[in-house]
Amino acid sequence: MTIYMVNLIGKISRGSLMDQVYLPKNRPSAFAPGCYVELVPVLAPEKITPYFYKVVHIEPLKVEMIQTILSLAPDAGNVLICGSFLERGYGFHDIDVIVVNGSITGVAENIEKTLGIHAHVISLDNTSLSEGLSTDPLFCMLLSKFVARKRVIFRVQRRILPRLLDLHLLSSKPLFHEFEELDGDQKYKMIRNIVAMRLFIDYRNVDSESVNKEIERLLGRGSIQNIKKNMTRKKDVLPILLKLYRKVFNHLMGEIHAQSK
Question: pTM here?
Answer without folding.
Answer: 0.76
